[in-house]
Fold each of these.
Amino acid sequence: MFKYVVRRLLYTIPILFGVTLLTFLLFHIAGGDPAAQAAGKHASAEEIALLKAQLGLDRPLHQQYFFYLQQIATFDFGRSWATKQNISSMFKAGLGPTLSLTLPAFFLAVLITISLALILAHLRGSWVDRLSLVLCLAMMSISFLVYILAGQYFLAYQFSLFPISGWDPDPILRWTYLALPILIAVVVSIGPDTLFFRTVFLDEISQDYVRTARAKGLAEGRILFKHVLRNALIPIITIVVIRMPFLVMGSLLLEAFFGIPGLGGIMFQAIQNSDFPVIKAMTFIGALLYMFFQLFSDILYAAVDPKIQLR
Amino acid sequence: MIFCRRLLTFALGLSFVFGHLSCTRRVSDQDGTINTVVSANIKGLDPIFSSDVYTNAVVAQIYEPLLTYHYLKRPLTLQPLLAAEMPKVSEDGLTHTFKIKKGIQFQDNPAFPGGKGRELVAEDFIYSWKRLADPRNQSDGFWVFDGRIKGLNEWREAVLKEEADYDTPIAGLVAKDPYTLEIQLTRPYYQLHYVLAMTYTAPVPREAVERYKEEFINNPVGTGPYRFDSWVRNSRVTLVKNPNWREEFYPSEGEPEDRARGLLEDAGQALPFAERIVFHEIIEDQPRWLNFMRGNLDFVDIPKDNFESAVVGDSLSPQLAEKGIFLQVSTEPDVTYTAFNMKDPILGQNVNLRKAISLAYDTETLIERFYNGRAIVAHSPIPPGVDGYDPGFRNPYKEYNLEKAKEYLAKAGFPEGQGLPELEFSTISSPTARQMAEYFQQNMAQLGIRVRISSSSWPQFTNKIREGQAQIYGIAWLGDYPDAENFLQLLYGGNVSPGPNGSNFQNEEFDRLYERASRLPAGPERTRLYQQMRDIVVAQAPWVPGAHRQSYYVAHGWLKNFKRNSMIQDYFKYLRVDPKKRAELKAKL
Amino acid sequence: MSQSQKPPARRNSLWWDALRHLRRQPLAMVSLGVILFYVGLALLCSAGVIFTDYALVDHNRPYQEPSWENWLGTDIFGRDVLARAAHGSITSLSVGFVGTGLALVIGTLLGALAGYFGGRTDDLVVWFYTTVDTIPYILLVVSLAFIMGPSLQTLYLAIGLTFWVSHCRIVRAEFLKHRERDYVQGALAVGASHWRRIFIHILPNIFHLILINFSLVFVTAVKSEVILSFLGLGVEPGVPSWGMMINDARLELPRGVWWGLAAATGFMFFLILAFNLFNDALREALDPKRSRV
């Protein structure tokens, strides 16, 4: 087990290197002349040169890359071009609101979709199952943006069920603002997640032990809830863990529309403002989190499933 | 599974911790808090970075410049703010002497000894203006002094070579005594008083800048009626009344109809009225409007797409009026225009082509479609509200006349558009800007001119113009101050890219007139020069002037003293919310 | 010709079975019909046979409600919304087909190389796709679209360069399995070149996976167009697209204009639903375990 963890950790090093290289190259090409952009309306050539030196953009490429690695190591991504704010503190300020949107949405969605999937697995082959399948696919066929537009317009404005948008830093009051975006996020994930978990359960049901249990005369419901659910937990946990980074990056669209001051909102603004340092930092942080959770999930998997260590 | 639960607990805990960290007092309807909105995210709160109107809306309540505009009088009239009186100007127009009000205190801040704000002195202006000029700060606002104040540009160069610092004296900026500031100009600059009413030139205390360094943007310390309270990033900024603010009173005179509109009821009352101002950052039109309709915002400008439901004919729709909402229209010194890049090989040399395009552009329908018919067709760069504007003036190439346009296109050497390569129209990628670009494309298609639209983010768009890469582009200019000079400088040869003259228009006669006018005080002679310049612009057609827009604001009945004009930036101190009426009217929404 | 050089019999029967299975599924057949309908619609629109008035401006009739004349109303410029939505299918289908095609070509090629050659090539490809996969896809799409500026070509590339990873992973795994199989080893014995073995021998055997992944990526591509349009990184203005129409709804809804949103959503809904349903049936049809469930 220990050896596996060490090996898995070592394996992340080239990936980390790859991510830094890719993001650096991507934004180096994309950047164009960032200095001219940052310097403002009335910038002279001299000022632009000065700014370039400040940003380190006049140095050779490999030095700039090294500088970027340095930024990453110290978690100091410099300042935003658009807002002149410190990117690390922007990130810290955005993390709380994002998590309070995505965590409840995520766990609610998992809970609801697993329950639905279990029911569907139980009723597999019936017309309820077939119909639900089509319904799930139908729900997946509508753009996220449409859910948001319609949800905000009808539920918040026409029927006045929720506040339209906004944010309160108060840990209780914020939920009034979060309710609708959370609801939308849950509704959007019902389609794909139910289908996914249903497949997981059906795979499990086709396993030999289920047949044995059935042969032993155990009730179908008991098999499903006791054995299948327990055994399916491993793939479910893995997939749940891998999805965690999206919790942190939040939802760009939801945050933009509902005025939630989270990371997604920051990212949205950065895109609107061509704010390269922010986009770059967010991309890297997103990748880093994904790597972390992937590592976490692999180790978890190895801890639960002894076969993996033999690999 | 246990692992998973722990993670959940940890993560939930994290969100609560973050919540508590940024906790502020709750906003309640009981007090006279003003809830306002900005439609873009607020940036750092520093006068030298106050170039965008949204950030400036906040900064201008915390910081104050020497002069300001009278709140009620129109046309806009300058009056002293930090200055004790209007400045004395020497015969030759080169020396401006300002007396500064005595006893003005900076807001309390830990940057000062004992945390108590100190008195504002003339030196503070000199320091702050050097800061504006410092190339390392990359302020967008240096143009207000660029080449105007004796020794300031030289100081700027020297700073770049590290040969000068903030203690190096500047010939043109002298503190005669703690309350007297003398400004020496390189040449007459009659717009000086206007720029001294802009937030860029507001004084900042050196102690605070040096204490907070780059974080000064988040720790503003001004002299204004409101001081910074809290900022929930990307959500809202809260300002509270500055308890140490000096005595100032609500004006007792205004326009004739102001009395009837109840704008003089508070005459002589001590300012400011509201205990607190909350600036909500709401970027999308829809939630902004909906929040207003719910009474969460005291006033907004009407989004174009809500206009039909809000305004009927010339007045507010009965449904809104019933709720106590009222309408306020303000004509701003503003012009939208389609600019040709005169350095472009096809467009730059061919005045007939430019005229053909101008003639084929149907502005009336544009105004109908995009400004709900509430804008004036622009015939030249000079907008209403500034001298040199003549409402009767007609630009012969501004009428929508396809026949004539076709004639000019043939004269230009492209009959029916034949032989003319596809043109590129640059714009920003907001839905409205995109639709306007499509509108231009449709208009040109009638002439047989093919247009490709290239859209990008605002910084990329302005960068493209600055680099002279944009062939045709649509943009607008909202005046910095009410003077035609501010509009005509957009076509001055000395300002070509990367300067504000993005169309790269260069005309000797125009430049000569511009330079002459810039040495003249306001008066009939300068107005005549402005009109001559206007005629050159019309004949050369480097722009297709678009529209002079009007702002339509709606406000709830509980908001008193509301009279908007975008030039007046420190207006929140005049506004008053009636909490009782708010509770009453809000119940009806 | 030796026996082992023939493609394995399993493949033929797999396709045959699948086809038979699919034909018994009315829903799958209807979905296929819908997809073909959209393809036909897009072709006819771009050939200028139907809905030719999609760009016809009428400033006297902006935002008209649905009527007999304009079944789905008109937009801000008085253009027929139905015609624009129909023309939007050109954008969506081309983004879907080209973007997805690009993603599948990249994924298949890299996956095949990695799986077939193994060793250092495999390490490199795995490293590369793990790296790309690590970057949150929305950020990758946005960055790519950003670099190239908004246009149709950008959409193709951004989608193609982003969504190849999962496909690549699957193809690699299949190649790893297949290269050890008898028929490939047999081809090696008679001296078939590497390319021949990759493309002529192995590739047809995993073609069903490409087909399944195609509709998966296709759906993602069409949906991404909407999001990229929202971020200002979509198609060139003036080109009819569902993404643009949904975005315009942000401005239209407040004035009670719902038909633009409804039209674009509806057109997109049926196309994507058809793909989703067809894919579901296809996967089931091609699943060798099908009989066991």
Note: The mean pLDDT of chain A is 82.
Amino acid sequence: MTDTTTGPAAGGPPAEGPGADGADRPRRPRLSAAARESLAGWLFVAPVVVILGLFLLLPILMALWVSLTDWNGQGSPFKPGVPFVGLDNYARLFTEDDLARQDFMTSMRNNIYYVLIVVPAQTVLALGLAVIVNSRLLKGRTFFRAAFFFPSVTSSVAISVVFLFIFANSGAVTGLLALFGIRGPQWFADSRGTLHLLLGALGLVDPNAPPAALTDGGPFGLSWWEWLSGPSVAMTTIIMLVVWTTSGTFMLMFLAALQDIPVTLEEASRLDGAGRWQTFRHVTLPMLKPTLFLVLTLGMIATWQVFDQVYVMSQGDPAKTTLTPAYLSYKTAFRNFEYGPGTAISFVLFVIIVVLALVQRWVLRDRDAAPRPRRRAGKVRA
Amino acid sequence: MTRGNLRNAAFGALACACLLTSAACGSGFDDKQAGPARQSDGPATLQILIGSSGDAETTAVRAAADAWAKSTGSTATVTPAQDIAQQLGQAFAGDNPPDVFYVDASRFADYASVGALEPYGDRISDPQDFYESLRTTFTYDGKFYCAPKDFSTLALIVNDTLWKKAGLGDADVPTTWEQLTSVSEKLAAKGITPLAVGDTRDRVGAFMVQAGGWITSPDGKRATADSSENAKALEYVQSLLKGKLARFPKQLDAGWGGEAFGKEKAAMTIEGNWIKGALKADFPDVKYSVHELPAGPKGKGTLSFTNCWGVSARSRYKEQAIGFVEAMTKADQQMAFARAFGVMPSRQSAKAAYTAEFPGDTPFVNGAEYAQGPVNAPKMESVLADFDTGIQQLASTSPASVLARLQKNTRAALGN
């Protein structure tokens, strides 16, 4: 009985299930055992289905409706008088040459750079920390585990405020750089793109007079030069903060997975003559693959949705270089009363996250033609 | 498992489905009633939402509301908002807005254009007594919507200590752009940052007014951002920034001009009368004086900031709400507010009493004669935020391109 009830729940309940089943079954004199079990299963999961439907699915559908309208925030969006505009709000984000598209594309650019840096950095850092605190040779492992995990349990708002102080123009970081004779940037006031700065430092282009080939045109209303800005100096502070705070959580996940790996496997590979790095690369890392997928997916979802750090630290400033789609969606809806375009942005964000998660899953899928037949034993888990 | 159990299960599933569908189109989301019954006289229960500047303001408004409630037999509940723009947005969407609430001048057109406000301005006694610039601020489509609560203007704040240190006297306080440049050069020569100015249209915009320009036409219908007057203003500000004669607060490690000024990182700043309270609380030792802003090519100009007492178009007690506003905007009551939390009365009849009691504020009050209110058109918030971004980069970009961008976006927002 336990098996059959958890079965449908784990398999992801299709919404039309109970109605269809219940409607045509009573005509039959007896139900098959399988049908009875599935019905009982639905009954058991019904409370959760109702709660999820009421508090998750329903609000999402309501928001979807709002994104198709030009609702101005007066009264209910489900009244007859609310103008229905179809996909206009979505089309505006991509096709019309106006401020709304420019803001949206700027926020997309910022977030792409943010994801490209944060996700790999936090994953590598988390894995590194996990390997370190998992090492049997390390003294005081419990202390380090707690220390590395500590930023993750602190409120992101509190940490953001602390970072504001640390990176203030007269703050600790600038002071530290000054000790080495470096004049640090004005972190939160600096909207220069780091890629621009890098290209300028290499002497490839002059950031103050970029080549016309790059500034003349580009996709979606931003010039190629703007697309190639890289994260601004202000954005890098948020990147540092997020990498530092989240790597603790992910370290914990890697640690749990590392402790699941039988020591005998590592010892066997050592006996076969594998070095330290080879053991890590060809034994430990493949065993961590499910966890790696989890960490990358969670990291990607969280980074595409970054909001609170932006809200507390920069509000999108300086020069919109810390604007992200999540914050822009909030601002458009609740500051400008343009609820339709605001929700449209959040649905575009939703689609991006789903698509990227699927791509990630496909890239990290288990390939049957594994190069090392001996490692087959590990596949059973996946 | 018997058939009885099975039937129960089927009923259960059906009940769940019913619950879902009823939740989906239940009473919460559609039009409840054709419209709440309106009461035009008698005692009322008023909900008042205020965007309070602090405890002093909350206490003063509560006291005034209690006094009004007692005299009319009504009840008035004053709630200070955490974030009034968001709370009002939610209240309008949820169909139960407060009866009376503060409306910020910069958001006024957004509310008026969607029909959230009752246009009661002309039903208040002696509406002509409000400063004309404030009445214009709260006029949309030719209708005077709501009574200005109070107002602030920008003025030039001068640090007397740094002033003396640079060997300057009272006569050196700049009254024109040329004098501002020359006196700034003298200060800079002594190693003092001359001017801290906020990096938004709410400060830099004052230069545009002094040059005779503004972002929109006076009726708020046309975009006039790329005028030569505006270009002149931004070029002047750019020259100050490039010469390091003016710095933005962030460059001086401060959140706003008043903080940079209080930390004595700049000899002058352009701020409104709220700076008095901030300096008193955080930097009580700073000695300063207040002067009118230096005049530009087209004479004096400043910006005004104000709130009005908005009355909800959906209120059940509109008449009583207007009566409440009437009581709040009486000259005596405005003077009481002025004493309690340092705002300037919006009625001209209170001007003499105010300047007599607060002579140091005369430059702020005088500003009302030539002040420009915020852009009075809906859907301009993101456009103006984009302009602020342009101002932040003014030192390194051309003013013409900043204004061309502002013109294009403003035209799109105004639909012309």
Note: Chain A touches chain B through 51 residues (CB under 8 Å).
